[in-house]
Every structure is written in structure tokens, then in C-alpha cells.
Model the fold of this input.
Amino acid sequence: MSYDLVVIGTGPGGYVAAIRASQLGLKTAVVEKRKTHGGTCLNVGCIPSKALLFASEKFEEAGHSFADFGITVSKPEIDVAKLQAFKQDGIDGNVKGIDFLFKKNKIDVFHGTGRIAAAGKVEVTAEDGSTQTVEAKNILIATGSDVAKLPGIEIDEKVVVSSTGALALDKVPAKLVVVGAGVIGLELGSVWRRLGAEVTVVEFLDRIIPGNDGEVAKQFQRILTKQGVVFKLGTKVTGIENTGSGAKVTVEPVAGGASEVIEADVVLVATGRVPYTAGLGLQEIGVALDQRGRIVVDDHYRTNVPGVLAIGDVIAGPMLAHKAEEEGVAAVEILAGKAGHVNYGVIPAVIYTTPEVASVGRTEEELKEAGVAYNIGKFPFTANSRAKVNHQSEGFVKVLADAATDRVLGVHIIGPEAGELIHEAVVLLEFGGSAEDLARTTHAHPTRSEAVKEAALAVDKRAIHI
Ligand code: FAD
Ligand code: NAI
Done:
């Protein structure tokens, strides 16, 4: 068996790369050790978390907001087994979709763990221990990432859980402690809070969602606090005692001071993810890693070993499914002699809570640090008719534009459907557009998108509705 390209790992990076390679006429195979394709994102990440966020949001709406609309329903109850079945159904449907796409694109599938025996040779070990070797002109590593473990803290996925366990709980914990106020902690903390858990988030830094615009983060923290999430910022976990039926979490202020013990039924450890390269044989063939264990690649996604490429969570950059996909496409387009490219300055990021948080481009903090002069246009959803009439008026849109050229450098949104609204800003940034371009573009009324236009108008201090 000999291929132009063998892709190891069928997460969003790997499976999309394989499809694009096949479209470009490369004879392609994939190797996947999980039973199902789709990687972290589809099996234990993006998709299941969004199913739980969707359903738990409906639960909360039925319990709280419906009455405001004059709709009377009896107090909603949650059947966690059914909720989990709903989640699994969504995963299964998407997994079938990838199976179909592999067949349609004539991509050969090898089930098992891939190891690069030498450049051009991937050894695949199946679950039963049998091995076979697949030959490839090029090998693309797309093996993704794994949960970052906290030293001395054991994850049993029952009481002390990673995101994987937190997505699969069979009942609502009365008390959930979340370690890490990043994306996973706040999305999954939101799910279980909506369903009835008391949620305490312990964060090492003195702010939540580091890396995001500071003003957005502050507003986000205020809103989540109003929803009932308790934050302990500037606090470190010094130990977790798993009692079998629950846990005692010992925390203390980072700045020093008395420690305290927080009781929990479940503790979610969400302190980041690390690249996954175990068992690939990288050391043996001499593939270079950086200090954080990520595979080092050049701007054509080539490692230092000829014929071995890498993309997605296993290399540097934001650990996002769409970033992995774009890299997969670019890497194989370049292989096929085309001009593949990823614009790293224009990768949107979304947190799928209520309200959603979405951003693209640079934050105010980054612009200040780089010494770039900028103008700010801000528009609150309280002044947007559609958001207001639907009682979804928390949050704002913030547009940051270059003071000299008016080119938009960053857009940050906290508000209803921010994850959808951000994409006009993504296109604008991709085309190097100005705030004036956005401000002069007709937006349908009444839409939440009008808040984006108004924020662009506000850059030139001429917003209409504030
Ligand atoms: P992965 O999706 O991790 O896929 C790697 C695949 O390689 C896996 O299937 C693995 O089994 C396989 N593999 C590994 N080693 C081998 C081997 N030696 N042989 C064969 N197969 C191997 N990102 C977003 O953009 N939006 C979101 O909403 C979002 N939500 C998330 C929620 C959670 C709870 C988590 C944990 C992550 C979330 N992410 C989200 C991040 C997203 O899942 C990752 O960025 C994305 O999956 C990375 O894609 P990838 O293809 O690089 O790797
Ligand atoms: P993260 O990097 O977003 O957040 C981790 C948080 O934990 C940070 O705030 C960090 O300061 C804190 N932290 C680290 N060590 C700590 C400690 N010892 N004690 C207390 N706090 C500590 O990582 P997270 O949430 O685990 O997510 C991992 C990756 O998955 C992210 O890179 C993200 O991009 C991706 N993801 C994306 C989603 C999306 O796009 N909607 C959803 C979920 C995950």
C-alpha cells in the first residue's frame, strides 16, 4: 500500500486535510486510533459541548424567560440520561458524515495507532495488536492535543474530571468546582450551573479568559456572577482530596494568605491542553519539538524531517478546530503545488456561553503593547432594538480601528449570538477593510448585526442610536 499522503489523526485538521488532498488528486489514506473519526472536537470537544450548551440554555429559558413572554410552562425537569442521548445522537450523526465523506473522496481508512517508523513509512497497530506498514510519499501529523494535568492531581473522570468527564456526567452535581476560568471551564461550568449546580471557579490569574479583550472579560465576569457563578480569582489549588463520593479542594490566594477548603461533588480541571505526540516515534526519527512539546514546522507546515508535516493542536497557535482545518487545507494545497495560506491575524475565537463572547484580530491590550494608535467605537446591545425587544440586551460590540488609516484591527463582541455576528468582522479584516467601510454598509433592520455597524459608526463618533 503506497500513498501520496498518509494523515495520522482524523480530527478537524486531519480529516479536512485528507478530503482536500483527495480533491487535489493525491492518493490519500488516514490512520485513526479512536473508533470514530472527528477527533477531540467531534467526540469530546466542540460538538458535545455545544449540544449540552444548547439544551441547558433551553432548560434555563423554560425555567426563567418563558414567563416574560407570557408563556406558562410547569417547572422544567432535567433527565440527564436523555440529555446525554441527545448529545450522543448529535455526535453519531456527524461521525457518519465523515465516514460518508471519506468514502465519497476515496480515502482509505486504517484503524489503529500510527507510528512513523521512518520517513515514508507509517506503522499501524490495530487494537488486537496486529501491525501493518503503510508507505507514503508524505506523512501529515494531525494528532491534536490532550488535557494538561495538574501535578499531583489525579483525574478519575468521575469525581475529578477533565472536560471529557464533565461532558459525560450522569447526574447534575450539587456542587461543582472548576479549576481554570478559561473557555472550557466557563462553557462547561455554564452547562451544569444552568441545570442546577452551584459552581465555583478557581482561577490562578486575577482575571478570567486571559488573552481576550480585558473590558470584555470584566463584563463577562459580571454577567456570569449575576447568573450565579462564584469566582475565586488570584487563587491557586494546592490539593484535591478525592473522597470517592466527592472532593475537598484546598485553595489559597496566589499573593499568600490563609488557605481554605471548598467541598465539591465534582471538580473539573480545565487548565489548558497540551500537544499530543505520544507513541508517534518522533524522537526516533528526529522530529524537532519546541519547549512546550509542540512540533516545530516552517510556514509550509514541514517539520525538520523531509516528507513529514504537521498541523492543528499539535503545532503552535490557538487550539481551535477551524485553525486546524485551515492549516490542513493550506498544508496539502502547498504539497500539491498550490498557494495554501493561513492568515493567523484573522482567526476568530468564540465562547459559546450566554451571552456569547467572540473576537477577531487584536485586543486593546495588544495594540497598547505594540504602541499602535487606535480609535474605539463601542455600541451596547441595550441600544439595539432587536436585542432589547427580546430581552437579550447584555453586552456590547467594540471596534478597534487604526487611528491613522481607519483600518479595523480588532472586533470584540459580548452579546446575543456574538459567535455569528463576528463573521462580518472576520471578512472585513481579511479584506483589510476600514471602520468607514463597515459603517457605510447597509445592515438589515431589526438585527443584532446593526450593533456591529453602529460600533463602526461610533469609531467616528457618529453612532445613531446612542
Ligand atoms: P484532534 O481533534 O485532537 O484530533 C486528533 C486525532 O488524532 C484524534 O482523533 C486522536 O485519536 C488521533 N490520534 C492521536 N494520536 C494518534 C496516533 N498515533 N495514531 C492514530 N491516531 C492518533 N475548538 C473550537 O474551535 N471550537 C469549539 O467550540 C471547541 N470546543 C472545545 C470543547 C472542548 C471540551 C475541548 C476539549 C476542545 C474544544 N475545542 C474547540 C478545541 C478543538 O477540539 C481542537 O482545537 C481541535 O479538535 C484540534 O483538531 P486537531 O485535528 O488538531 O486534533
Ligand atoms: P484555557 O487556556 O482557555 O484556560 C485555562 C485557564 O486555566 C486559564 O485561565 C489559566 O490561567 C488557568 N489556569 C492554569 N493553571 C491553573 C491552575 N493551576 N490553577 C488555576 N487556574 C489555572 O484552557 P481550557 O479552558 O482548558 O481550554 C483548552 C483549549 O481548548 C483552549 O486553548 C481553547 O482554545 C480550546 N477550547 C475552545 C473552545 C471554543 O473555541 N469555544 C471551547 C473549549 C476549548
Remarks:
- Residues 8-14, 31-34, 39-41, 45-46, 49, 113-114, 142-145, 163, 184, 276, 279-280, 312-313, 319-322, 324 surround flavin-adenine dinucleotide (ligand 1) (CB under 6 Å).
- The chain has three domains: 2-146+274-342, 160-271, 346-459.
